Amino acid sequence: MATDQQQFDILVIGAGPGGYVAAIRAAQLGARVGIVEKQYIGGTCLNVGCIPSKALLHIAQVYAQFAELGKMGIQVTQPPAFDMPTAVTYKDKVVKQLTGGVAQLLKANGVAIFEGAADVRAPNLVSVQLKDGTTRELRADKLILANGSVPIRPPFPGLDGRNVIFSDDAMNMPKVPESLICIGGGIIAVELACMFNALGTKVTIVEMLPAIIANEDEEVSKALARSFTKRGIEIFTNTRVEAIADAGQAKRVTASAADGQKTFDGEYVLVAVGRQANPAGLDGLARAGLKMERGRVVANEQMETSLAGVYAIGDLVGRTWLAHVAMTEGEVAAENATGHDARMDYTVVPRPIFTFPEVASVGLSEAQARARGGEIHAEKFPWVANGKALASSETEGFTKVILGAYGEILGAAIFGPDATNLITEFSLAMRAELTADEVVATIHPHPTYSEALREATLAAEGHPIHIFMRQATAQR
Ligand code: FAD
Ligand code: NAD
User: Fold this and answer.
1) Is the beta carbon of 414 within 6 A of some atom in ligand 1?
2) Structural domain of residue 437, as residue ranges?
3) What is the pTM of this model?
4) What CATH number is associated with residue 309?
């Protein structure tokens, strides 16, 4: 067994969106950087999360749109046929191109890549079990931990049975399931429910809370549930799953609700009840006093842990479980580890959900804003009143803006076309502390979806142009 020692200024553990961004930023700032990755460059997000799920959702949306083409004069003379293995190959190509690009970027920035599992022995000593079977000892002045997360395995029986899948498996299905029971109605479940429903699967969502995507604005959550129900997705809320078992050829999910026990039968069961931090390989640091809470590594706003010179970012810290936050935390950690002073600010974090229509929000929901007290103005502008949306047959949903007493933007939520891109306007406005007046004074191009954001802001101010408001004000 060959043992070789190498010295780095900064060693990053894990090459997901948190880790690879931290490594590139640290290298840009002049540090000698190494990164250790045990499974795949790009982590969960690029390999089994954000990117593959969006490739498959894109395919499912295109497939579903065929049903709408006739009314626009496009006659599809044969019904479209869907082939799952080809779709998975398309998804694999997307993933390969992106992860290959990230590997090239790391190399171009001079980052040394070690493919193997890191065992962090001490704050400046890491032993790597390389994929070729050899072991490498690496020394570093600073560490950035970016080990990411794994799915939560809920404590009920039946998880290991046939046709019980987690989100990773959903990216590589051999065929379209005839029916699927989703345990959990959170973000992963609604995105995958939307995808499989569009491909022809009979989908049932079983959620223990009173609503699906329960962290979102109540009106948005209800609108998505209505939209899903119209498409034939069955939703059971206030229903807690307690077991999965076989029932002949089918799977049976047993759950408890206020009106007693319920059972749901389907061909497949998707378990999507949240994710948990993955502290694999960090035992040495735990012994050295690394502070952890509820299974997550604790980091301050500079992303430094309880051990000086050891930083932690992304899902391992588990503040938001979002890739774009992991990336920003990566930049902050890299800057602090190279002697600069950067701090994380979590007040403006956009939350995208890639269903169709999409959901995106930032800041407070209306209920959260009202709970804080004070004067609140919250109004919605419907997509049906937006010319571009009408022309594009994208009239479902609305944009909601929540303003405070002085026109400050407290939050915004969009349910509709391109919501996940559009939310950036409100994110930027909130970050720059712009008021509603400044959003309204900005000329938005016509005809675009972006006009709906201005109109929703006008509506919250009390004087929208493109919807009638009985008590419209000259100015609020
Ligand atoms: P990860 O991406 O999990 O990367 C951690 C890496 O560390 C892994 O590659 C792992 O192999 C490696 N590692 C762990 N331990 C060791 C060790 N000891 N030695 C070496 N390597 C190690 N977020 C969004 O913002 N938008 C989305 O659209 C979105 N979609 C998602 C869809 C799905 C199905 C899932 C599951 C998640 C999705 N997420 C999305 C969440 C997003 O994937 C995560 O928030 C993000 O990947 C976290 O990045 P990270 O770098 O902290 O960890
Ligand atoms: P989640 O926390 O969003 O949802 C899990 C849901 O499962 C919750 O609503 C919970 O009440 C429910 N649940 C738990 N136990 C249950 C039981 N026994 N019976 C019925 N319901 C039960 O978690 P997730 O959907 O697994 O996603 C994990 C994380 O991944 C998310 O927090 C999200 O940030 C991230 N993610 C983000 C995106 C995106 O940004 N578009 C996409 C996918 C995943």
Assistant:
1) no
2) 351-475
3) 0.97
4) 3.50.50.60
